[in-house]
Recover the amino acids of this structure.
């Protein structure tokens, strides 16, 4: 039976081209007519949420809107019977928080095909410490491993290292035995990055624009979370046969490169999507993070915020000032 419940949601309104988020009381009857109603305990903050909240029409077309591309919580209604009522689930990506009201509200209603069972031993908060950013870091590392990356080959670079994706990539790669070079614009975060497992922290100038089409190959492999010019420079510095997992665009969506890294050094540029991939692929990475890929330092250092702190936290993402993992706790 479908019941109607009033709940709190952080809604973004559009007025005269300005976008403002605030706490509103809404109703489950306002949610889209999907199969599974979830009471969200926690969400996670991502760069894409900041884009949605600031009116980026490539992410969210219509307002008012509740951002939050991640949600973890308990199934309250399930029209198709799966997942079962009372079970705990994770929803990340697909259209959640884009044009489907997302995890910054206390309830979401989503298709059953978006729901992954919470891994054994996890609660909603643990899942949301990783969130889409952690999932993406895991997929980036998985792609490098699938290409045969191994610690013996040499250093692995992580750009945007202090960010939500980058910080998990640093810890996971270090845990897997890689010699990790964190590339970060935040000198004051060097100690945190070393604590996560980076052996070296270098500034963003390591990827500053150079006229030369090729540079000394210093990295065996890399995880790039920033895109744009820094990615083009990174490709010039990869050893023969090495790979770069590419997932982000904070430094811009354009990639101006020559083919030389590819045809002279056999470098591989690996695209990573965490949003539209099959649910089973997401579930496989969650299972790893709940087991042999657990990142205890990331888990211990995650920050919790309430809905009232969302505005400031999202603005920090847009300025490149955010760091580490931030969990939204609806309690
Ligand atoms: P964050 O803002 O947390 O991290 C990005 C980091 O990049 C910043 O912390 C900063 O790190 C660095 N940075 C910011 N601006 C610039 C700049 N102009 N030039 C160079 N470096 C910069 O974002 P997320 O980690 O959540 O996301 C990173 C990217 O990955 C985003 O573009 C996001 O959209 C994308 N993404 C893609 C997914 C996919 O499925 N493909 C899924 C999840 C995220 P520092 O100061 O340490 O240099």
């Amino acid at each position: 039976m479908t019941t109607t419940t009033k709940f709190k949601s952080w809604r973004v309104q559009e007025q005269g081209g300005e976008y403002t988020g605030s706490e509103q009381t809404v109703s489950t009857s306002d949610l889209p007519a999907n199969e599974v109603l979830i009471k969200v305990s926690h969400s996670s903050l991502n760069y894409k949420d900041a884009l949605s909240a600031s009116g980026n029409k490539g992410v969210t077309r219509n307002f008012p809107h509740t951002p939050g591309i991640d949600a973890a919580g308990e199934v309250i209604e399930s029209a198709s019977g799966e997942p079962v009522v009372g079970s705990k689930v994770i929803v990340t990506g697909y259209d959640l928080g884009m044009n489907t009201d997302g995890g910054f509200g206390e309830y979401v209603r989503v298709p059953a095909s978006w729901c992954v069972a919470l891994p054994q031993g996890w609660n909603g908060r643990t899942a949301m410490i990783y969130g889409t950013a952690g999932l993406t870091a895991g997929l980036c590392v998985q792609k490098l491993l699938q290409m045969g990356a191994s610690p013996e080959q040499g250093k692995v670079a992580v750009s945007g290292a202090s960010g939500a994706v980058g910080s998990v990539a640093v810890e996971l790669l270090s845990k897997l035995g890689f010699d990790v070079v964190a590339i970060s614009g935040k000198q004051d975060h060097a100690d945190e990055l070393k604590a996560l497992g980076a052996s070296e922290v270098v500034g963003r100038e390591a990827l500053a624009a150079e006229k030369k089409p090729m540079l000394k190959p210093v990295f065996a492999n890399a995880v790039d979370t920033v895109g744009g010019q820094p990615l083009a420079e990174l490709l010039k510095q990869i050893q023969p046969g090495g790979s770069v997992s590419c997932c982000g665009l904070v430094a811009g969506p354009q990639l101006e490169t020559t083919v030389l890294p590819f045809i002279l050094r056999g470098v591989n540029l690996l695209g990573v999507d965490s949003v539209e991939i099959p649910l089973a692929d997401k579930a496989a990475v969650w299972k790893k993070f709940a087991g042999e890929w657990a990142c205890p330092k990331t888990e211990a250092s995650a920050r919790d915020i309430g809905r009232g702190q969302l505005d400031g936290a999202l603005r920090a993402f847009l300025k490149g000032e955010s760091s580490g993992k931030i969990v939204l706790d609806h309690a």
